[in-house]
Structure formats: C-alpha cells, structure tokens
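hey can u check if this looks right to u? its 113 residues, i copy pasted from the old doc so theres a chance i mangled smth
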Amino acid sequence: MEDVKCPYCEKWNEINHGDGYGYDEGETYEQTCDHCGKIFVYTTSIHFYYDAEKAPCKNGGEHDWKKINGWPKEYFKNRRRCSCCDEILIINPEQVGASGCKGLIRTLGGKNE
C-alpha cells in the first residue's frame, strides 16, 4: 500500500511503521524516499468516520432479538442481541414463554451506551 507522495520526486512511498513508529498525532516523523533517497518529514492524522443506522427499538418499536454464537456455548445459550441497537437480553430458561423472551432477567448496554 502506498501511503504518501514524496514532496521532492512526487513518487508514492509506504510509511515505515516498524515498532509502531509514525502513528502518534502531533509528532513529526522523518523517512527516506525509496525512489530519490531524500529525507522528508510527515505528520499523522487520524480520521473518524461514523455510520448512522435506524434504531426503531429505541423509538417505541420492538427489539429484533437474535441468537448470539460464541464460546463457551453455555455462556451464550440464553443470550440474545438486538440486531438494531446491540442491546443484550439475558433470558431465564425456566420462565421462557412462547415468545422466547418472557423470562427476561436484564438487558445489558447497547450501541448508545
């Protein structure tokens, strides 16, 4: 992957991140161009991207509970995750009704927490 153009010869170079070098924001790093041999400096910028999704269950609608697969199986057996908000439902197996969710013990977090 080519990360940056050399400011001298304008050819693409891959930033050398050996031992974690070159990742901290606010620091100036240097690297030798693979093509012209000149030393250039660079800084690192970290960008955040956000994806918004509808969450009808947080607006009066029903949760869309899905089984959770994981290991150990016993831990996940009575847990469900809402496909919209990531909230976790823990079901008491002795109280499970036709809907599969009557035995609610508690819910744990979600995407908004």
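Residues 30 and 40 are 6 Å apart (CA to CA).
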